[in-house]
Design a protein that fits this description.
By secondary structure, the chain is mainly alpha-helical. The protein has 14 helices and no strands.
Length: 265
Amino acid sequence: MTNVVLLKPEVNSDMATRRTRLIRAFARERRQQGDVFWLKENAELLGVLASTGVALDAEALKPLITFHSKSRNMLRDFPQYYRFILSLCLDLEELGLPELHGAALCDEVARAGLEGAELSDLQRAEARRLMRRRAVGPRVDEGALGERLHSFITRSATFAMPNRKAAYELTHIVYYLWDYGRRNPNLSAKALLSLQFTGLLAFLDQDMDLLAEVCAALRFAGVAPARSWENFVAECHRASRIQVDMNAPVQDDYHEWLVTGGAMH
């Protein structure tokens, strides 16, 4: 495991303190605030924290208050990043910041028709999921888009062969249908079989990033993953090491570390 985050852990610190330091590291110490990679990493971190239901105090979210207050300006200036901006703002408000901007952002995205600019059904599904958190627009599973998503995830033969791109699309469609635990996706037996195929191949390949995604998707669907899979994911996460090196490259294993930790909750 390479440097995961630029954060000095302390063995004796409690979980709340460690989360506060982790948010600060992602918000201020890994990348320049506001660039696309900063948006992606912080959206992923907050998404995991929000979906696992952690309680954060005001101090923990302090490094992101300025971003939250300026999120509408950022959407105006960088509409191409609207999914990251929406995700960050909505999760910040779910985690404890005042609900001042999320609904307005969703309305602005809907008025601008930004979902319609997406070529990928997966990205359209993500956009719908985000806007539905403020009751804007159709549900992810409605209409022709919903039919195509369900058709994709129920074609189990796709996932019986190694195809990492399709595998990640499968897990994320489940996330979006279930809204990361906020609603029941009512997955069919065929869709669950697709997840089982994907998890088995990831387990055999020792692809911990993908296996963690599958375990989380199964939990979201109300199905317990194989114990051996979850044990393997937990072992991978515990074996990770956080290194302190302000000059280290940031193309590291943070995503595997993040999703394996999220899957454990």
